[in-house]
C-alpha cells in the first residue's frame, strides 16, 4: 500500500460473530475477540453467542468488553448459535470467526473489499493450522503424520479440512468457489433474508464432528438466486487470513476416522437437501486428482503412516456417505424453511 494514498474504506459494514460453547477455550475466545478489536477496519458490532452454557454466558458478559453477548436462542449447536446472531446483526455483511481462531492484521478489510461487486454474496478466507506439540510430527513445521502436507509453517495439507483449515486443492489466489469454510467466512445479510439461516439438523454440536452446514447454505443460496435469473458469486480471498488452533485430540487416528465418517454422513445429508450434483461437485475433483497425488508423494517419501492416513480418510468418508444414503438415515434433515412456521425467508426457527 502506498503510504501517501488515502486508505479506502470497505464498501460495506460488517457484524463479526464468534460462537462459543465451552470455557475450556476461554483463552482462545479472548484471543479471537481481541484479534477483531485490533483490525485496521472495525465492525459495527461484534457478537459473541454462547451455546447453551449459562456459566460461560455469565463469564462472557462479565469479562468481554465491547461486545454483545447473547445466549443461543435456537437448537443447541453451531448452526443455531449462528442463526441467533443473524437475527440481530445490523451489518450489511455477517462475518463468522471460530472461537479457536485469531484473525491476522488486514483480515476484515480483505474479506469486505470484494463486496464492491454487487454480484458477490459471500467471501471466505484462508485458515492456517497451528499444530500442537506432537511426537508424530513429520517435519519441523509440527505437522502430524495423520495430516500430511507441506513443510513450511503456512503450508496446506490435503487432509487439513479435517481440522477446519484450508486444504491443498483450494485456490491460492482470489477465485470463485462453491462454498465457504466455517472458521473464516462472510455472507451478505440479504442472503439470510432471502433463503433463511443455517440448517440446524446438520452441523457441529459441541464436540460432535458433523459439518457441511456452510456447504449446504452456500449451495442453497446460489440456487435461489439462479432461480430468479441472477448469477451470483462466492469468493475465496487468501489475503483474509486467520490462524486456527488445532487441539491435541484432533491429530490422532480416532479423530481422523470419526471426522471422515462424519463428513460422509454430512455430505449425504447435504445431497438430500440440495441435490447430489451440487453437493459433490467439488469433492469429485478432489478425490480424482488431489488425493492420489498426496498418496504417491507420501509413499515415495517413505512415510507409511501418512500414506495410510490418506487412504483412511477417503475410506471412512466414502463409508459414511454410503451409510448416510441408506433409507431413513437422513429422514430428520430439513431445510430451515421446512422447520419453521414462517416464510422461506425467515431465519427464526427451532429445527426439527
Automatic annotation (TrEMBL):
- Key words of the record: Glycosyltransferase, Transferase
Q: In which pathway does it act?
A: Cell wall biogenesis; cell wall polysaccharide biosynthesis
Keyword Transferase attached = yes
Query: Does this UniProt record's set of keywords contain Transmembrane?
Result: no
Using the record's annotation, list all stretches that form the Glycosyltransferase 2-like domain: 15-195
One Pfam family, short name: Glycos_transf_2
> Which residue stretches, if any, does this entry annotate as coiled coil?
none
Instruction: Tell me which family the UniProt entry assigns to this protein.
Output: Belongs to the glycosyltransferase 2 family.
What is the designated name of this protein? Glycosyltransferase family 2 protein
Q: What organism is this sequence from?
A: Pseudonocardia xishanensis
Amino acid at each position: 500500500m502506498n503510504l501517501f494514498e488515502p486508505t479506502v474504506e470497505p464498501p460495506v459494514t460488517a457484524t463479526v460473530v464468534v460462537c462459543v460453547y465451552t470455557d475450556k477455550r476461554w483463552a482462545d475466545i479472548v484471543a479471537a475477540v481481541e484479534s477483531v478489536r485490533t483490525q485496521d477496519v472495525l465492525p459495527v458490532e461484534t457478537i459473541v453467542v454462547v451455546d447453551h452454557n449459562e456459566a460461560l454466558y455469565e463469564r462472557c458478559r462479565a469479562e468481554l468488553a465491547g461486545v454483545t453477548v447473547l445466549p443461543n436462542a435456537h437448537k443447541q449447536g453451531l448452526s443455531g448459535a449462528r442463526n441467533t446472531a443473524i437475527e440481530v446483526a445490523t451489518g450489511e455483511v455477517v462475518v463468522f470467526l471460530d472461537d479457536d481462531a485469531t484473525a491476522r492484521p488486514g483480515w476484515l478489510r480483505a474479506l469486505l473489499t470484494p463486496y464492491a461487486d454487487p454480484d458477490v454474496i459471500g467471501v471466505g478466507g484462508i485458515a492456517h493450522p497451528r499444530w500442537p506439540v506432537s511426537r508424530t510430527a513429520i517435519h519441523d513445521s509440527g505437522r502430524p503424520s495423520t495430516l500430511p502436507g507441506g513443510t513450511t509453517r503456512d503450508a496446506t495439507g490435503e487432509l487439513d479440512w479435517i481440522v477446519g483449515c484450508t486444504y491443498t486443492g483450494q485456490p491460492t489466489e482470489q477465485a470463485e468457489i462453491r462454498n465457504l469454510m466455517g472458521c473464516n467466512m462472510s455472507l451478505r445479510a440479504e442472503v439470510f433474508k432471502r433463503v433463511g439461516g443455517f440448517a440446524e439438523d446438520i452441523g457441529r454440536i459441541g464436540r460432535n464432528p458433523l459439518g457441511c452446514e456452510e456447504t449446504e447454505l452456500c449451495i442453497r443460496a446460489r440456487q435461489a438466486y439462479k432461480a430468479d435469473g441472477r448469477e451470483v458469486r462466492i469468493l475465496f480471498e487468501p489475503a483474509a487470513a486467520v490462524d486456527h488452533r488445532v487441539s491435541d485430540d484432533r491429530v490422532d487416528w480416532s479423530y481422523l476416522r470419526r471426522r471422515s465418517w462424519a463428513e460422509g454422513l454430512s455430505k449425504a445429508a447435504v445431497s438430500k437437501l440440495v441435490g447430489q450434483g451440487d453437493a459433490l461437485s467439488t469433492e469429485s475433483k478432489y478425490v480424482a486428482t488431489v488425493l492420489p497425488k498426496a498418496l504417491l508423494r507420501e509413499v515415495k517419501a517413505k512415510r507409511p503412516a501418512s500414506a495410510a492416513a490418506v487412504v483412511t480418510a477417503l475410506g471412512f468418508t466414502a463409508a459414511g456417505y454410503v451409510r448416510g444414503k441408506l433409507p431413513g438415515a437422513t429422514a430428520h434433515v430439513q431445510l430451515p424453511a421446512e422447520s419453521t412456521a414462517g416464510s422461506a425467508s425467515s431465519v427464526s426457527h427451532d429445527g426439527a
